[in-house]
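User: My collaborator sent over this chain with a note saying "see what the structure looks like." That's all I know about it. Can you take a look?
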Amino acid sequence: MGIGTAVLLTTGGMATAVAQDGLGGQDARGVKATSKANASWGYAKATWKWKGAGSTGKVKVYVDDQDCNGYSVYAKMQFKRATGQIVDGDNYYWNSDSRCRGKGQTRNGPKFSDNFNITHGRVVVCQSDWGWDTCKNGKWHKNPKA
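Assistant: Without extra context I'll predict from the sequence alone. Here is the result:
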């Protein structure tokens, strides 16, 4: 059998599909993913599930303004297509400087879907500093479904 094929097992009259690609029964639930970006002025962590070659489940993002310097901090998602092109997710997740007391903010975002294969995803934390924002990229998480 080749990679990505499935074996059909029968036991007691029931049929069970067993994936040969190492993903097992994860196709219906999705494969968990995490990315973190850390800078002296801000931190972000994103979690999501890969649902298919070009889609995720809902994204959950934690963002924290770590130095309260008067510039707001936000996070965004980025996705890499099989072509190598990097596209931003639809939402920015803000932790405004006025909320700089205590812990950061956790935000729930929409699913991401694209007509292209999405090979990787990551979170990016940025500081809105009047001009080209200063950003720190998180590590890419590979999409095992692409």
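A starting point for your reply to your collaborator: The longest strand covers residues 42-52.
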